[in-house]
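Task card 7
Instruction: Convert sequence to structure tokens.
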Amino acid sequence: MRPCILLVAAGLFVPGAGCTPPVVFQSDRDGDSEIYKMDMTGAAVTQLTNNAAEDETPSLAAGAALIVYSSDQTGNQQIYSIDINGGSQKRLTNHPDNDYGASVNSVTGKIVFRSDRDGNFEVYIMNLDGSDQTNLTNNANDDREPVLSPDGSTVAFTSNRDGNYEVYIMKADGTGVTRLTNFAGTDQTPAFSPDGATIAFTRDGDIWVMASDGTNQVPIMAGPKLEAEPCFSEDGTRILYMSSAGIMVNPDIWIMNRDGSGATNLTHHDAWDSYPVVAGRH
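Output:
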């Protein structure tokens, strides 16, 4: 894996030429959930966090310099950031309620996340340093799993505001909420392709894709196993995802071609490996 040469300008991270981002994921292979990275073949696995808390739901900024994730090391889940090479972490939220599941965008310097500080889960947005935390959804139902589009202009998220969990999209200021899926089961974990034209998502344990306007919904990985948490590779030609033999059965991280062919297990571990991300996803 070629290293990322990074420039820092106006607080944003810009990839240098030849930058190959790693895959960042969460695993409990050392006893509790920690953040790890590996290359796109599953090699060079490196532990990035190491504490007694549960470190979960990582997001990797484009340019592969910054990881944001949630951790309960202070008693409840809050959002933290850490360099791609590990080292000191920075706490970004500090609230008596829980903040989870951040998605970072280095183009706009924004992070979206879900919080139950208003009595139910809402989607919030803030700056890279944790300032200016703003509720985007303000809805009485459950809004979760937000992810920023590559250009940072829109947010895809999951909500049960119409009775069951579906995928929605809105502008990054919270306006223009549009429902993209309409399914009797559960649609969740949306992820944008690098060009923003396609969204991959989980439908009742299978991986589907659709256009970012909700049209052309197509299954690409459907079978007896539980597949979830899709994420496009940086070039958009492949999709990483979590696969398990069943609910509460230790999953591995897999990769497949964009059409669902060539599925390959990357982790092959008895632990719980999940939530794979590359630059610009989650």
